[in-house]
Design goal:
Length: 204
Amino acid sequence: MKALRPFVVCAALALPALANAQAAGDRPAETFEEIERGLYFSVLGGPLFIVNPPASSGPRPFSPGQMAEVELGVDIGDRLSIGLFLRGAVNRAGSDYTGYSNGNASGDFSSLVPGAVAHVRLVSFPDAQDVPRTWFYVRGGAGYALFWPKALLPESDILVFAGPGVEYYTRLRHFSIGVEVTASFFVKSQSFGFALTPNLRYAF
């Protein structure tokens, strides 16, 4: 019996370890989505051009500028996303541009536009692991445009915009990058514009 005691002690010590190993083996392996979807945050920015800026009289010269935008939204499946955005922009204009000021003000102007937006993903292309990382999409939205200086552009406007884009979901599964071209239209002033905007998106 004395000779068996070491074996009994070793068996007693080994049983908990074997039980833990069995329990670990019973748990399913943790898996991760190759592409995260759900609540997301994105930033956009790039050149913005207004072909005929808002004005009541006088010249409406071509106006180059820059815009930046932040967007917060949610994915509804793989193909549809909806969100809210806030866009800021500054545009150049010469001294001959007087907007709605009747000649009392002239020159550059800026805008701030809050609004809503939707993305519809149309076509995807898989990578070597058959993961659809590259998507072509269309994006459109509308917002309420406020302008400054008020002496130059005292009236607000309604902005609508739409355009195509391409998006690549990186192997850092929360991130995607893309670029889009959008045409824009200010409803009240009948002003047209377009923008080229690279973008970066993070999905939670």
